[in-house]
Backbone:
């Protein structure tokens, strides 16, 4: 039997039975949603997926007959075989939707070691955020697999929180630290909380940084002079060899920090479109404004062995690009909508890549 590559099979399939692409992708999304929300009822699932109950019924009946779903009084759940198939389907669906070519393009244009692009748009579907977190968790575990002594720094945010929730391992030699101080009112999305959750999942130690994310330089200096414990934590954070960070829109993050509206306007006038680690970037990747902090800043990243940025949603495309152009990230995990927005920006300005 002759060897035919998966890409060749997909190309033939697209030519002969193009309708199969939509069918496989739709059933993949059904399995993925059930795996996140199980047990779940048919009506709720149809609403979340934006499908009619009639179309959804045909999908779930097929998946049940194939041994991939269980039906109970509390709703539908994915079987063990279904969970295995779901993981195997991810790469296949990526190729079906030509996401792998997007990954290669972004990796080349932005000089990254690895790019993973997942189907969907996190702005429209919260499951996509959780998928980004799940994939990032897998990458983190592989980075820790050499069983050396690691210091993992994490920022706050929904996507990084999803990564922590999806991490399961045993890394007693690892220390988990917050990359920054506290930001915003949601404790579960703050770096300290995420560091605690991640350390629990890895069955290892963590340190906390009980300092607000943005205070004056004078106050920061006084804290370091008077609190030896905080100074020790900061030194450990600065020694991190792995960083997992989120990326946000400049205006959104400025408002979360409670910045003066006049300063927010000045940021926009300076061209700020993205934020990461308290630094505000223009579309060319230049830092146009920086907040004071005891945690990591962009100029610390060149000393970190592996920097992984994770974020999704079309609305964040330009923000992600602004951070990546600073040249500090090694790995990007994002979604199709954000990736397409980034590629559109790159293609509209080919001389500024």
Residues:
């Amino acid at each position: 039997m002759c060897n035919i590559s998966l890409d060749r099979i997909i190309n033939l399939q697209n030519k002969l039975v193009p309708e199969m692409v939509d069918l496989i992708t739709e059933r993949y999304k059904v399995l993925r949603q059930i795996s996140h929300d199980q047990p779940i009822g048919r009506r709720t699932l149809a609403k979340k997926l934006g499908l009619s109950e009639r179309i959804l019924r045909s999908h779930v009946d097929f998946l049940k007959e194939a041994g991939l779903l269980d039906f109970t009084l509390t709703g539908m759940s994915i079987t063990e075989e279904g969970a295995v198939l779901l993981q195997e389907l991810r790469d296949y669906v990526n190729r079906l939707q030509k996401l792998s070519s997007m990954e290669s393009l972004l990796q080349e244009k932005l000089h990254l070691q690895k790019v993973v692009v997942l189907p969907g748009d996190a702005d429209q579907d919260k499951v996509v955020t959780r998928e980004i977190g799940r994939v990032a968790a897998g990458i983190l575990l592989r980075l820790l697999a050499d069983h050396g002594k690691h210091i993992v720094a994490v920022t706050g945010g929904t996507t990084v929180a999803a990564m922590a929730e999806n991490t399961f391992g045993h890394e007693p030699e690892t220390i988990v630290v917050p990359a920054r101080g506290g930001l915003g009112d949601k404790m579960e999305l703050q770096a300290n909380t995420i560091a605690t959750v991640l350390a629990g999942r890895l069955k290892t130690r963590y340190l906390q940084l009980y300092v607000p994310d943005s205070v004056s330089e004078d106050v920061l200096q006084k804290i370091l002079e008077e609190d030896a414990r905080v100074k020790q934590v900061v030194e450990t954070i600065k020694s991190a060899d792995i960083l997992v960070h989120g990326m946000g829109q400049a205006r959104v993050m400025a408002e979360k920090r409670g910045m003066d509206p006049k300063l927010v306007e000045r940021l926009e006038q300076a061209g700020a479109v993205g934020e990461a680690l308290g630094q505000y970037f223009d579309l060319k990747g230049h830092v146009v404004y920086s907040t004071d902090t005891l945690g990591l800043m962009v100029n610390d990243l060149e000393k970190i062995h592996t920097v992984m940025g994770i974020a999704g949603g079309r609305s964040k495309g330009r923000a992600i690009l602004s951070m990546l152009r600073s040249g500090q990230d090694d790995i990007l995990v994002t979604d199709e909508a954000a990736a397409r927005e980034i590629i559109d920006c790159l293609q509209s300005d080919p001389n500024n890549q």
About this structure: The CA atoms of residues 225 and 231 lie 8 Å apart. The first strand starts at residue 69 and ends at 72. The longest helix spans residues 19-37.
